[in-house]
Design brief:
The complex is a heterodimer of chains A (about 140) and B (about 775). Chain A is an alpha+beta fold and about 140 residues long. Chain A has a single domain (about 5-135), classed as 2-Layer Sandwich (Beta-Lactamase). Chain A is about 40% helix and about 25% strand. In chain A, strands 2-1-5-4-3 form a five-stranded antiparallel β-sheet. In chain A, strand 1 (about 5-10) and strand 2 form a beta hairpin. In chain A, helix 2 packs antiparallel against helix 3. In chain A, about 40% of the residues are buried. In chain B, strands 1, 3, 6, 7, 10, 11 and 12 form a seven-stranded mixed β-sheet that branches. In chain B, strands 13, 15, 17, 18, 19 and 21 form a six-stranded antiparallel β-sheet that branches. Chain B has a five-stranded mixed β-sheet with strand order 14-23-22-16-20, with no helix packed on it. The longest helix of chain B has 21 residues, at about 145-165. Chain B has about 775 residues and is α+β, with helices and mostly antiparallel strands. Chain B folds into five domains: about 135-270, Tetratricopeptide repeat domain (Serine Threonine Protein Phosphatase 5, Tetratricopeptide repeat); about 270-380 and about 395-405, Sandwich (Immunoglobulin-like), CATH 2.60.40; about 410-465 and about 490-570, Immunoglobulins (Immunoglobulin-like, Sandwich); about 570-650 and about 660-695, Sandwich (Immunoglobulin-like), CATH 2.60.40; about 705-775, no CATH class. In chain B, about 25% of the residues lie in helices and about 30% in strands. Classes of the chains: A alpha+beta (about 140), B alpha+beta (about 775). The interface of A and B includes residues 38 and 113 of A. Chain A: This is Trafficking protein particle complex subunit 2. Chain A: InterPro entries: Longin-like_dom_sf (IPR011012), Sedlin (IPR006722). Chain A: Pfam families: Sedlin_N. Chain B: One of its GO terms (biological process) is intra-Golgi vesicle-mediated transport. Chain B: InterPro entries: TRAPPC10/Trs130 (IPR045126), TRAPPC10/Trs130_C (IPR022233).
């Protein structure tokens, strides 16, 4: 069954360094813009909410119609944002944690300039695989 | 984003509202989406009408996908609000089927088998609102679209301000976009532009390019209407520099054509355009171009163009900034003429005029499109700049041009250090050695000094020079075989006014230049004898040649050198009387010292004796034995014996002043590369014979000493400065005076002492009588 999900990693400078549509619905251009719009506006909410708790996983911080924005903030204030329709939170938390590990591996690469786009196709494949694993099978659907 | 409050169930349409419904439908159908600049086709965000439909019909039963799609097809636009982006939201139709499982409402008065159309939804909502609202201001706001808009603007502005103040900038910016759209609709283009600028600034600062791609055309449109050329150009350039997948190629071409059109038109206030993200450049990956001081060169630079089409540039110039600490900030500018940049990589060569020494890195690229000047500071490492990168690249520290400090580029040394023959036409060799530099087009000026004449009727020989070991021994089969291409090329070049043009093949190899000169020395050389010891002066034989080589790619390199060449007579002659025979003849040995490093063949020698002497024997002035041809090895000596006799001249004065002349006919076989050699034949019938004349002074030898002089030892052993010392000597007559002519028996004595060391107190000269008898002493 189709679901929408858009995953964005935003660096601490508020610049998106990675974007992926990880939903199982077919990708559309207008929807991509739509998702960007919602995620960008949600950054405002995150910037307030991130300092209220010392947890990394902030759960859902914003809603738009029936789309929900869940955010995971790393120690370096890099935000992993997932725009999705309602689904189970456990899956999302595990997804974020796994992606965090992948992200750390990217940072360990000495040739990677922090704050620049993540262009690794390996990373991309892995993230999509993780999305398939955590966001759809275990979700209540 | 907060969702708008929705009623649990949508109010139903009042019974007799079909006319209103029709009117509403008409307005909906007539309203159309705002056309975007550049014909950008973009599907609007599904924010309003479709969700409105969905929301209103949420709890209604009998909805199927087919019905809904019909409804969606009739959706055209909305009379409300400004951000009118429409799209039949196909995906939400799928969602629709999910939500249809809810119970059907029973409050509707419509037949339950038909969903509400958009117009019906509008009418129903209006009626419900009118019934519930009591505030008169609010009622006026809802009475007409203009009122509603003004109220909407008021609320939105307030909300945007509050969002900004509470640092929820992104929410604030979204509302700013709404406000800008309304301003635009009303024709307040400057206010609209201001608001759009805020939106664009935030989106570009944070790098959300899809959002920027959506709003920037609106800003561009405002700027175009306001005739803000600089802003419009900047927006177009920014649009072009966004990721290319965000726009179709037609749209990108439209951006470019706008830029070009403006560039070629008259602009009121032309401002240089910054295209750092569109046109980037990088130097060659190769090592930096190395030039010598004062040389021009060409530098090739890779320039990447991000324009979708070819773009014609009227001019392009590149600034290099000097990297050395002394010249920080000094910029050197090159330019090239009109060219077309194709999208992607272009290689452009720049001609560089002579520069000061130092190393240079790439600075900024500037140029002109039409009448518009642009500049680019965008460096790229390898490929085009990734526009998503907001970490700007560090200025490249890799130098791209190195101009060397002035250094020796060429060396000219004389080929031969040993002496050449004086007064004969000799070859002088110069080794012209380029040091890592091409001497192409070089002209060698030779200026001979005094007493040296360059024979200009002869051709100059230029040959390639192999270093010492191989040159002197030409027959070395193994070496010749190993270098079959090195054939010792010789070329003859004419000399004009002391100028030689170096041939092209000689520009990179060490060459030997041979040119014929004649050193002139008009004085007759003098030989040495016991009577006239002579100091050899090397200076007499030196001649100076001033050389000047003009070369260089810019013909501005000059090399000057003055070389000294030694010339010498072939022989140095010394004489001595070997023996006296019993009959009074004297054996005169004439010693020929070879002064040259070549083999001399003496063919004939004749001696013209001075007065007071005469030859014995044949009387033709030749030596006693015929040893000719006499071969004298380099720098060695040979002796020739003459038999002479004193002749009876009594004229003492004549005796003192006369000189004998020795004529030597000789030949020389030498290599011009080692030293003196046989002269260059000027005329074809010049003989190989050379004539050398040298004057000798012969003095009558004292073979029969008449007097003996002896010093007596000093009285004291050690002498002190200032001490008065008596010097005594004794003169003894050894034999009787034979000639009666000398009747006076007085002896003239003269004391000569080195005035630096001795002071003579007393008479230095005087006459003393001396008896004539043998054995008498004084």
């Amino acid at each position: 069954m189709a679901s929408t999900a858009c995953f964005v990693i935003v660096s601490k400078n508020d610049i998106p360094i990675y974007e992926a549509e990880v939903g199982s619905a077919p990708k559309k251009e207008d929807l991509a813009y739509h998702h960007q719009f919602i995620l960008h506006a949600a950054l405002d909410v995150v910037q307030d909410l991130a300092w209220t708790t010392n947890a990394m996983f902030l759960r859902s911080v914003d809603r738009f119609n029936d789309l929900v924005v869940s955010v995971y903030v790393t120690a370096g204030h890099t935000r992993f944002m997932l725009l999705h329709d309602s689904r189970s939170e456990d899956g999302i938390k595990s997804f974020f944690q796994e992606v965090h590990e992948l992200y750390i591996k990217i940072f360990l690469n000495p040739l990677y300039l922090p704050g620049s786009r993540i262009a690794s196709s390996h990373f991309d494949t892995k993230v999509r695989a993780l999305a398939r694993k955590y966001l759809y099978i275990r979700g209540i659907y | 984003m907060l969702s708008w409050p929705k009623p649990a169930t949508w109010p139903s349409i009042p019974p007799d509202s079909s006319a209103e419904v029709m009117a509403k439908e008409k307005t909906i159908l007539q309203a159309k989406a705002r056309e975007k600049l550049f014909d950008i086709q973009r599907k609007p965000l599904p924010l309003e009408p479709s969700s409105l439909l969905r929301e209103a019909n949420r709890r209604r039963a009998f909805l199927s996908v087919g019905n809904l799609s019909e409804l969606y097809d009739s959706v055209d636009g909305s009379g409300l609000g400004a951000h009118s982006k429409l799209s039949p939201n196909k995906s939400s139709s799928n969602l629709m089927t999910r939500t249809m499982s809810g119970p059907a409402t029973s409050e509707t008065s419509l037949p339950v088998d038909r969903p509400m159309r958009l117009s019906e939804i509008h009418v129903a909502a209006e009626h419900a609102l009118k019934q519930t609202i009591s505030d008169p201001d609010f009622m006026t706001s809802l009475s007409s679209p203009e009122e509603f808009e003004s109220r909407y603007m008021e609320l939105t502005k307030g909300a945007a301000d509050n969002y900004h103040r509470s640092w929820w900038k992104r929410h604030g910016v979204v509302l700013d976009g709404e406000i800008a759209a309304i301003f635009f609709k009303h024709g307040n283009y400057d206010l609209a532009a201001k608001s759009y600028e805020k939106v664009c600034a935030l989106y570009s600062a944070e790098g959300w390019e899809e959002l920027l791609a959506d709003v920037l055309p609106d800003l561009a449109e405002c700027q175009k209407i306001l005739k803000d050329e600089a802003g419009y150009l900047a927006s177009c350039v920014k649009l072009l520099s966004l990721e290319s997948s965000l726009f179709s190629s037609k749209e990108r071409q439209a951006f470019q054509s706008e830029v070009v059109r403006l560039a070629h038109s008259e602009m009121r206030h032309p401002v240089p355009l910054d295209v750092s993200s569109l046109i980037t450049f990088a130097g060659n990956p190769a090592p930096p171009l190395e030039l010598c001081d004062g040389d021009p060169g060409t530098l090739s630079v890779a320039v990447w163009s991000g324009f979708p089409d070819d773009i014609t540039l009227e001019s392009l110039s590149l600034r290099l900034s000097a990297f050395s600490s002394a010249d920080e900030g000094l910029k050197a500018i090159r330019s090239t003429d009109a060219r077309v940049l194709v999208p992607g990589r272009n290689i452009i060569t720049f001609d560089i005029p002579p520069q000061k020494p130092g190393s240079y890195v790439l600075g900024a690229l500037t140029g002109q499109i039409g009448k518009l000047s642009f500049r680019s500071h965008g460096f790229s490492q390898d490929g085009p700049v990734d526009t998503d990168e907001f970490m700007s690249f560090e200025k490249p520290t890799r130098p791209v041009l190195k101009v060397r400090k002035p250094r020796a580029l060429v060396d000219i040394t004389p080929a031969v250090s040993s002496a050449l023959l004086m007064n004969e036409l000799q070859w002088i060799g110069l080794i012209v050695k380029p040091i890592d530099y091409s001497l192409k087009g070089g002209i060698l000026h030779i200026d001979a000094g005094a007493e040296l004449k360059i024979e200009e009727s002869q051709m100059i020989e230029i040959e390639s020079y192999r270093s010492d070991g191989e040159h002197s021994s030409p027959i070395d089969a193994s070496k010749v075989l190993s270098r079959p291409t090195d054939t010792g090329r010789v070329e003859k070049v004419p000399i004009e006014n002391g100028k030689i043009k170096l041939p092209d093949w000689a520009s990179d190899v060490t060459t030997l230049v041979w040119f014929p000169v004649r050193a002139i020395n008009d004085t007759v050389p003098k030989g040495t004898s016991p009577a006239s010891p002579q100091k050899h002066s090397i200076v007499d034989g030196m001649r100076m040649i001033a050389l000047k080589l003009e070369f260089g790619a810019f013909h501005n390199q000059i090399f000057e050198r003055t070389i000294a060449v030694h010339f010498t007579n072939p022989f140095h002659v010394s004489t001595r009387v070997v023996d006296k025979c019993n009959d009074g003849t004297l054996l005169l040995q004439v010693i020929l010292h070879s002064e040259v490093k070549a083999t001399l063949h003496v063919k004939d020698v004749s001696l013209d004796l001075q007065a007071g002497f005469e030859h014995l024997g044949k009387g033709d002035g030749r030596p006693t034995s015929s040893l000719f041809p006499l071969v004298i090895a380099p720098s060695s000596k040979a002796g020739i014996l003459f038999v002479i006799r004193l002749s009876g001249t009594k004229d003492l004065d004549e005796l003192e002043q006369a000189d004998s002349m020795l004529h030597i006919k000789y030949g020389i076989s030498g290599d011009r590369a080692t030293g003196a050699h046989s002269p260059v034949p000027v005329k074809p019938d010049d003989s190989e014979e050379l004539l050398f004349k040298i004057s000798l002074k012969l003095k009558r030898p004292v073979l029969d000493p008449c007097l003996a002089v002896g010093f007596l030892p000093f009285s004291t052993d050690c002498l002190r400065v200032g001490q008065l010392v008596n010097m005594k000597w004794r003169v003894e007559r050894l034999k009787d005076l034979e000639e009666a002519s000398l009747s006076d028996d007085e002896i003239l004595y003269q004391v000569d002492a080195n005035p630096q060391n001795w002071m003579v107190a007393g008479r230095k000269s005087g006459h003393i009588s001396f008896s004539e008898a043998q054995g008498s002493r004084i």
